[in-house]
Amino acid sequence: MDSLKELLAMKLPVLSEWGWMSNPASGYANDFNSVFYFLMWTGLGLFLLVVVPMVWFVIKYRRKHESQKALSQNDHNIKIEVIWTFLPIAYLAVCFIWGFLGYLNVSTMPMGAKNLRVIGQKWNWTVQYPDEDISVSGQGAVIGVPQGENIQLTMSSQDVIHSFFLPNFRIKQDVLPGRYTTLWFNASEVGEFPVFCAEYCGDSHSNMLAKVKVMPKDEYNAWVDGIKNANNKLSPKELGAKLYQSKACVTCHSIDGSARIGPSFKGVYGTTSELASGAKVKVDDNFIRDHVLTPTKTPIKGYPPVMPSFQGQLSESDINGLIEFIKSLK
Amino acid sequence: MSAPGKNYLNCKKGFASWALTLDHKRIGLMYLGSIMFFFLLGGLFALLLRTELLSPGHTIMDAKRYNQLFTLHGAIMVFLVIIPGIPASLGNFALPLMLGAKDVAFPRLNLLSYYIYVLGAIVALGSLIVGAVDTGWTFYMPYSSTTDGGVVLMVTAAFILGFSSIFTGLNFIVTTHKLRAPGMSWYRMPLFVWGIYATGIIQIMATPVLAITLLLLIVERVVKVGIFDPVLGGDPVLFQHFFWFYSHPAVYIMILPGMAVISELIAVFSQKRIFGYKPIAYSSIALAVLSFLVWGHHMFVSGQSELVGMIFSVLTFLVAVPSGVKMFNWLATMHQGSVSLKTPMLWALGFFVLFAIGGITGVFLGVLNVDVHLHDTYFVVAHFHYVMVGGTFMAFMGGIYYWWPKMTGKMYSEFWGAASAIMVVVGFNLTFFVQFLMGAQGMPRRYYNYLDQFTIYHQISTVGSYVLGLGFVMALITLLVSLKNGKTAPKNPWHGASLEWTHTDAVPIETNFREQPVVTEGPYEYR
Q1: Span B15-502: which CATH code?
Q2: Which residues contact B388 (CB under 8 A, 6 or more apart)?
Q3: Among all residues of chain B, which has the CA nearest to that of A181?
Q4: Domain range enclosing A242
Q5: How far apart are CA B91 and CA B94, in angstroms?
Q6: Residue B261: Cβ-neighbour burial (10 angstroms; 0-12, 13-18, 19+)
Q7: Contact A211, A192 (CB under 8 A)
């Protein structure tokens, strides 16, 4: 849990301790602040517009003795009623149009943006980089992005609804099982910015944290190389062990022989399994490979057929790594 | 006809005379007692939650317990306290009196709806035995299909409670149409009646949709038919549409009666004819109608289409107009009045300030792109507490203090009543105002754990919640003490001009009026 403690100590950059907003990290976030502060100041004005007269009337017309009558029984004034019905409509129209323009901006994906794939699952985020052929995942995952480029996130969920929330970018989008939703941003500021899950998803909902790390282009390239090298330097077995965690195999498959949603990996390599169809298969390299990529073709007897496909998410060396890892679990 | 000295409280004695009563006044009091019990229970859960949030991570409970408690807090406060709240207790007590009727139109149905409420409450508490629910009061799919615990029982409880709400609404609508005293035209009805009437419309039109949704949820969980769960081929966003199609109108089931009480309080304690009677009455109806057309504003980031989001944003802004009209009319009513600061008026003025903040922050959330950022943060939590507690509950307390002499025949201590109202307003702002700051900075709601930098805000909020809790407890104790020590109430302590003050005994007799009142003028003619 120490890693979680460290994670919670991360800063959500805020200009001043008591500021209304966290620091804007994109051009859009700056535009957003204009709308927000417009609402805040006009809202304060509206508040004073009703509360100051209230206080004034309470003082001025305060009943001083029990039998004091009202000064008048006037109960209508068409002119003022028209004003307080229609003036707010004009104000609200301004609010709507301004907010709508901002919303168009958020929800229109820019052409030619760099695409990242985001997968939400209880309780961490996985981000895949199709261009660079890398991925990052796990609690507190660092999601590197180049500064000043349009980044589009194409998101889906492995289980329940999550919501990808980047406060410094003022954007948020629910992440659903069974369909894709999208989000985009263009980071203008270098730095680390927290990612929250904003849709309640169970026990560790509040620990479903990650960071977006915005870097200048060359630093970003070095970061990508670093991740590639780190993976290359690992022995296949170590790579497999890492993927076992980061691809969340661990959620359903134990390595100590205990039963979870799927069979344990312990000692499974080389044994014979019975499929739901009744056929018997040997758990060898080819079986594992096929089962990881197209699990629905070979459901195992006695387990619910809920394993997702990892087609396109694993490179050749990743699959080899996983096989070597499973092989090693005697 | 009742003998002198006999009233609805002392005319019959014994447990059965209460348990089987058909008297709307007694049923109203039974509701009031039950609702206050659950309010204290839900409030206790809130204080436990706030205590847990004093520090990040584990303070007094683990994450699982925390998630169960916020679910219970929400479900109890929504389904057992605020939705029945004012209509079932104050509405039951005052509405027939204000109309000059002997009782509601269907007294037996009225008693039945009370017992349905009790049954729903028992089933809800029973779900705790099976295993406390941790889905949040919104039961969002597919999470609520994956979690164990008594989801089915809790949902069944909400289903049952819905019927209680429908029957109460139906009763008030028919009573308003059929049982008005001679001379009581629609525009001579007190605005409280208009508000409760508008609420009744929503209750009978929206609640069945909740029932259908919850039934589908149960069918899906039990029989595994794919409706909302994508694993079974369903659509989780469809659940949100169904759910909010009820639950947004439900927000108006909660706030309209609050506004209805405030209209009475402001007029009586200013001793001035209400300003803009018809605009206030029509704005209640307008809010009831508009309430059906804005559910999608809970779903701007859910994945619904942008066009739909835009339409819901426009419609949402329309809601602000009738709400604003009411505020301005109340303000104008106080102008040149004879303003008394008795305890009920203090609650009303508290409502005025807190509801103004709740309404203005509602505009923030109606603005499309601002909502994208604020959705599911503490900003939303603060906003709806300002509306539901700062609005509805302040009005509820004001209404209880206003009709208390008529209900019980006792006057309470003005000093303690005023002190508790002030304490609630101070404690409330301390608790919830910092939540706007936290939320705007990005602190998501329903978080057991949080970034260290939010600690100070959470601590202020927690301290505030203790002040708030103490204020409410003081307010209730003040009332209970008055039962024993209070001075005998006069017939019309506030110089009210509606029938429950002018035409009944200090404590009304069982059949309300000694002779049929005949109405010759409006309800706000103060002399």
Answers
A1: 1.20.210.10
A2: B77, B82, B254, B255
A3: B303
A4: 235-328
A5: 5
A6: buried
A7: yes
Cα A172 to Cα A199: distance, rounded to the nearest angstrom: 10
Give the chain B residue whose CA is nearest to the CA of A35: B370
Contact check, Cβ <8 Å, B142/A159:
yes
Q: Which residues have CB under 8 Å from B241's CB, separation 6+?
A: B295, B296, B299, B304
Q: Specify whether A222 is located in the same domain as A242.
A: no
Q: B338, B410 in Cβ contact below 8 A?
A: no
A contacts of B143 (beta carbons < 8 Å): 160-161, 200-202
From the list A12, A96, A203, which residue is nearest B64 (CB)? A203
Cβ distance B306 to A102 less than 8 Å, yes or no, reads: no
d(CA B30, CA B37): 11
Q: Could you read off the pLDDT tens digit of each residue along chain B, which spans 527 residues?
A: 456 778 999 888 899 999 999 999 999 999 999 999 999 999 999 999 999 999 988 899 988 899 999 999 999 999 999 999 999 999 999 999 999 999 999 999 999 999 999 999 999 998 888 888 888 888 888 888 877 768 888 889 999 999 999 999 999 999 999 999 999 999 999 999 999 999 999 999 989 988 888 888 888 888 888 888 888 888 999 999 999 998 899 999 999 999 999 999 999 999 999 999 999 999 999 999 999 999 989 999 988 888 999 999 999 999 999 999 999 999 999 999 999 999 999 999 999 999 999 999 999 999 999 999 999 999 999 999 999 999 999 999 999 999 999 999 999 999 999 999 999 999 999 999 999 999 999 999 999 999 988 999 999 999 999 999 999 999 999 999 999 999 999 999 999 999 999 999 999 999 999 999 999 999 999 98
Yes or no, beta carbons of B310 and A47 under 8 Å apart: no
Å from A55 to nearest chain B CA?
9
Q: How many CB atoms lie within 10 A of CB A117?
A: 18
Domain count, chain A: 2
- The ranges assigned to domains in chain B are 15-502
Cβ of A9 within 8 Å of Cβ of B452? The answer is yes
Show Cβ contacts of residue A68 under 8 Å, excluding neighbours closer than 6 positions: B271, B338
**H or E segment to which residue B382 belongs:** helix B378-387
- The amino acid occupying position A43 is G
Residue with tokens 């014994």: B14
| Residues A3 and A123 both lie in one domain | yes
Angle B432-B434-B436 from CA coordinates, rounded to 5°: 80
Contact B442 A201 (CB under 8 A): no
A171 chain-B contacts, CB cut-off 8 A = 372-373
**In this complex, do A12 and B452 lie within 8 Å of one another by their Cβ atoms?**
no
Mind spelling out the 3-state secondary structure of B285-327? HHHHHHHHHCHHHHCCCCCCCHHHHHHHHHHHHHHHHHHHHHH
Which residues are A62's β-sheet partners?
A: B339
Give B87's Cβ-side CA count (13 Å radius).
36
List % helix, strand, coil for chain A (3-state, nearest 5): 40, 25, 35
- CB contact at 8 A, A137 and A244: no
Here the CATH number for the domain that contains residue A220 is: 2.60.40.420
Q: Are residues A207 and A132 in the same domain?
A: yes
Determine the residue type at A82. Answer: V
Question: Strand, coil or helix: what is A187?
Answer: strand
